[in-house]
């Protein structure tokens, strides 16, 4: 059987990702340009600046991707591109580039929902083990959701965050802690820095945060309380030990361990609700078999959090999976793989040539 190749384009936030994946799930090329270095200087993403950087890099990223895969543009089967959700200015760069390319090559253009791509990514590496439907915990810098995944375009939302996303909380708290002034964390995102710092704790139980939404028996999340409690605890500590304005509190490792435990407990608490919900006999979602659990999105990079989630799932007889770390965070591979899933699902119907209809939504 002839192999098909899907080109995936991701520009929803601050990473320019372009990749080629074939229909068997083999990654033929993966180009990822991070903007972290620029945005760290300003303490966050400035959307017009992010747009400029995507614009400046997208053509060369595409050329490098083709070279890496040793393919000619005509050999591509389809172009997949993130159309939502994301920063509109950033999304536009990818969508315009993809439209132009698809029209020039006369190839189908496949729109991709970014969070769906996170959810389906683990299937690329575990196609046999993760069949539809499965339960998915999506935790990233912009989202936190529990969903039942029935196929591309067929997700049922069980619950989501009422305020901040966990990655966003990590990034803001990391910034407030000033972890970025430590040379080893300079170019790391907040979540990764906090994960590393937590391992340096000498008294991991020194900080304790209340469990959010403890009384609610649903699948929603809230991270604003943990964030505000964190800001308060950091300020109290800075005052007590007279931390200079460009310094980091001395026991930041202990603090990060407490924070990580709080986020982890909340994610587990809600995932437990979702598993129990799926196992209710009247739901008939999964028959008698425990659902397979997938954790995905940038926060799934966190080994401690994932180990806790996997442990919880195992208590209910659920197998759990996450994508390889390089595919947990935003990248072009997950967009290309979503395109492959679309092609595999309905081979003809999803071949879209009405390029102007594909837009950011
Ligand atoms: O999925 P992603 O790359 O982008 C979004 O779609 O948001 O997720 C980025 C988020 C960031 O907020 C970052 O703090 C978090 O993922 N993150 C982590 C880790 N690595 C990245 N959070 C916890 N532990 C990590 N190791
Ligand atoms: Zn993402």
UniProtKB/TrEMBL annotation:
GO cellular component: mitochondrion
Xref: InterPro entries: ATPase_NBD, Gcp-like_dom, KAE1/TsaD, TsaD
Co-factor binding comment: Binds 1 divalent metal cation per subunit.
Keyword list, A-Z: Acyltransferase, Hydrolase, Metal-binding, Mitochondrion, Transferase, tRNA processing
UniProt-annotated location(s): Mitochondrion
Cofactors named for this entry: a divalent metal cation
GO annotation (BP), single: tRNA threonylcarbamoyladenosine modification
Domain Gcp-like: 27-337
Enzyme Commission designation: 2.3.1.234
Top-level class of the enzyme under EC nomenclature: transferase
Chemical reaction(s) catalysed: L-threonylcarbamoyladenylate + adenosine(37) in tRNA = N(6)-L-threonylcarbamoyladenosine(37) in tRNA + AMP + H(+)
Highest taxon in the source lineage: Eukaryota
Pfam families named among the record's database cross-references: TsaD
GO MF annotations, alphabetized: hydrolase activity; metal ion binding; tRNA N(6)-L-threonylcarbamoyladenine synthase activity
Mitochondrion listed as a keyword: yes
Similarity field: Belongs to the KAE1 / TsaD family.
Task of the protein: Required for the formation of a threonylcarbamoyl group on adenosine at position 37 (t(6)A37) in mitochondrial tRNAs that read codons beginning with adenine. Probably involved in the transfer of the threonylcarbamoyl moiety of threonylcarbamoyl-AMP (TC-AMP) to the N6 group of A37. Involved in mitochondrial genome maintenance.
Binding partners and assembly: Homodimer.
Name of the protein described by the UniProt record: N(6)-L-threonylcarbamoyladenine synthase
Naturally occurring in which organism (per UniProt): Drosophila yakuba
């Amino acid at each position: 059987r002839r192999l098909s190749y899907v080109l995936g384009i991701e520009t929803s936030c601050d990473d320019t990702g372009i990749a080629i994946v074939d229909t068997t799930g083999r990654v033929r090329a993966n180009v990822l340009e991070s903007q972290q270095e620029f945005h760290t200087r300003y303490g966050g993403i400035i959307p017009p600046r992010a747009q400029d950087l995507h614009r400046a890099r997208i053509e060369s990223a595409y050329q490098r991707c083709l070279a890496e895969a040793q393919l000619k543009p005509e050999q591509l089967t389809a172009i997949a591109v993130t159309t939502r959700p994301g920063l509109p200015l950033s999304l536009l760069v990818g969508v315009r580039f993809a439209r132009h390319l698809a029209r020039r090559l006369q190839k189908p253009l496949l729109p991709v929902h970014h969070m769906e791509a996170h959810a389906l990514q683990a299937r690329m590496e575990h196609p046999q083990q993760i069949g539809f439907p499965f339960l998915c915990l999506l935790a990233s810098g912009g989202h936190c959701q529990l969903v039942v995944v029935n196929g591309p375009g067929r997700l049922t939302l069980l619950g989501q965050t009422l305020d901040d996303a966990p990655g966003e909380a990590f990034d803001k708290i990391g910034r407030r802690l000033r972890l970025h002034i430590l040379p080893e964390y300079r170019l790391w995102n907040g979540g990764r820095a906090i994960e590393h710092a937590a391992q340096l704790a000498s008294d991991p139980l020194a900080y304790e945060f209340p469990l959010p939404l403890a009384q609610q028996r649903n699948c929603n999340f809230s991270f604003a309380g943990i964030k505000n409690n964190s800001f308060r605890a950091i300020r109290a500590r800075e005052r007590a030990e007279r931390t200079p304005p460009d310094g980091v509190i001395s026991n930041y490792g202990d603090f990060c361990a407490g924070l990580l435990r709080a986020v982890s407990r909340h994610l587990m608490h809600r995932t437990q609700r979702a598993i129990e919900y799926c196992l209710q006999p009247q739901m008939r979602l999964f028959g008698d078999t425990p659902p397979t659990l997938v954790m995905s999105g940038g926060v799934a990079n966190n080994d401690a959090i994932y180990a806790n989630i996997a442990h919880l799932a195992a208590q209910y007889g659920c197998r759990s999976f996450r994508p390889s770390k390089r595919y947990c965070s935003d990248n072009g591979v997950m967009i290309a793989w979503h395109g492959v899933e679309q092609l595999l699902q309905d081979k003809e119907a999803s071949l879209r040539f009405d390029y102007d209809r594909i837009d950011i939504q």
